[in-house]
Amino acid sequence: GAGVSQSPSNKVTEKGKDVELRCDPISGHTALYWYRQSLGQGLEFLIYFQGNSAPDKSGLPSDRFSAERTGGSVSTLTIQRTQQEDSAVYLCASSQDLYNSPLHFGNGTRLTVT
Amino acid sequence: AQSVTQPDIHITVSEGASLELRCNYSYGATPYLFWYVQSPGQGLQLLLKYFSGDTLVQGIKGFEAEFKRSQSSFNLRKPSVHWSDAAEYFCAVGANSWGKLQFGAGTQVVVTP
Predict the structure, then answer these.
(1) Which burial class, exposed, middle or buried, applies to B14 when counting CB atoms under 10 A from its CB (0-12, 13-18, 19+)?
(2) Does B99 sit within 8 Å of A33, measured CB to CB?
(3) B100: nearest CA in chain A?
(4) Which of A106, B27, B36, B46 could be stapled to B31 by a disulfide with Cβ–Cβ 3.0 to 4.6 Å?
(5) Angle in degrees, CA B55, B59, B60, rounded to 5
(6) CA A55 to CA B97: how far, in whole Å?
């Protein structure tokens, strides 16, 4: 079956512009996570959703970052007024539930801010 | 605060040789422990996990890992590597769930003929 799909796969944007990154989780997965992978670093947790609710936004780096999830399915991560330090690979993962299921990762969106 | 350390940024190993990747964590209690692999152009894949019980856990692709509480370690091993094992490997720690994880910086494994 289909895995986690992220789009676009690559995004180049100018500093100061807004970007939207999209994640389509596996059908039926209630939990959805966003991570960021910067060059030479491990993955950094950003936010997770249980259904459409985001109980934990503690990883969002600044108020320029926001995310939403609609219909318990698609999620969008928005970065406003992008900065060069936002350049990274943004990974989305989904799981059947929060506590008993493994994460299934997408291939990520590589964001480059020039 | 919890942390995960993978001391080796890069490891080169010959095909057929054994491999051990180190992972140390700092956490107040026994965390959920994971190893993930990221192959070029592919998403992260779970290799194995430890929650409780037997401290030696078996995973996919012939990998195993051993949890040592006294050393706060969860090292990954494979007796004989294949060229297809060339990838980046991440150790991760979770407090009480599979999903909100803290990852190490990763170890890049290169396999030579």
Answers:
(1) exposed
(2) yes
(3) A45
(4) B27
(5) 175
(6) 14
- Contact yes or no for B101 and A48 at CB 8 A: no
Tell me the three state secondary structure of residue B47. Answer: strand
Question: For residue A17, what are the β-bridge partners?
Answer: none
Q: Are B36 and A93 in contact (CB under 8 A)?
A: no
- Measured between alpha carbons, how far is A107 from B43 in angstroms, rounded to an integer? 4
Interior angle at CA A33, CA A77 and CA A17, nearest 5: 15
Q: Which residues of B touch A31 (CB under 8 A)?
A: 99
10 Å CB burial of residue A88 (0-12, 13-18, 19+) is buried
What digits encode the pLDDT tens for the residues A25-70? 999 999 999 999 998 778 999 999 999 999 888 899 999 999 999 9
User: Which residue bears the tokens 């039926």?
Assistant: A28
Q: Print the SS3 string covering chain A.
A: CCCCEEECCEEEECCCCCEEEEEECCCCCCEEEEEEECCCCCEEEEEEEECCEEEECCCCCCCCEEEEECCCCCEEEEECCCCHHHCEEEEEEEECCCCCCCCEECCCEEEEEC
What distances in angstroms separate CA A29 from CA A21, A39, A97, B55, one per listed residue?
A: 19, 29, 7, 30
User: According to the model, what pLDDT value does residue A77 have?
Assistant: 98
User: Could you tell me how many residues make up chain B?
Assistant: 113
CA dihedral A70, A75, A80, A86 (to 10 degrees): 160
